[in-house]
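Good morning C.,

I know you're traveling, so I'll keep this short. The sequence:
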Amino acid sequence: MQYKTRGIVLHNSAYSDIYSITLIYTEEFGMSSYLRAKSKSRKTRTPQSLFHALAVLDLEVDHRNLRDIQRIKEAKVHIPLISLLNNPVKSAIGIFLAELIGKVVKEVQTNKILFDFLLQSIQVLELTDKSCANFHLVFMVTLSRFLGFYPDDSGYKEGMFFDMFNGVFVTNKPLHPHFLNPDESRFFYNLLRIKYENMTAFKLTGVERKTIITAILEYYRLHLTHFPGIKSLDILHEVFE
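The tokens, ready to paste straight into the viewer:
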């Protein structure tokens, strides 16, 4: 059946000489893979230029629940992302977030709250004219709420360790190796207080930012059944060095 839905583009891969498969998080169907033609014709209803990382599109799709790969009939821009495509820092963040979402969000059913969060985040990244050096950190921590393992910071006090395995702050050094030391834990606790609105107030050096993002990715890895490496992480590190 044919449906209309908004969708967020996450990844493109070659399928054949004339078709590509695009991974899209949709408002109506959750995570879906779509077959689309590679045609460069001006008359095509699915122009290749639209399907970049984090593109937000209005889609007309042929969606059938028992089919693994769906079909896109038509695609149009829902939100123009001029700044995200032309600003090197925003572009690197966008590529990183698109890869992250594609690897950690597995839902194949409607989740309007999650879709709205992703959409709002993309809009903030596009529209902000301030530093977005902490944007991906705030995004990753907030996304963990939707994935079911947001850290419990209710008992934090200065000098505590963050036990990543159990997702809590503890007084004594954990017996396992998956924890942050007191200085790193303080950074991490402060990060939990940050929102997009005040993300520029949190000052980190390049080394500190790299340490925190490595820790967050390890935290994800501990709480997800299968979480492969993020290929675009090196590009992100280069941007902030």
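Safe travels,
E.
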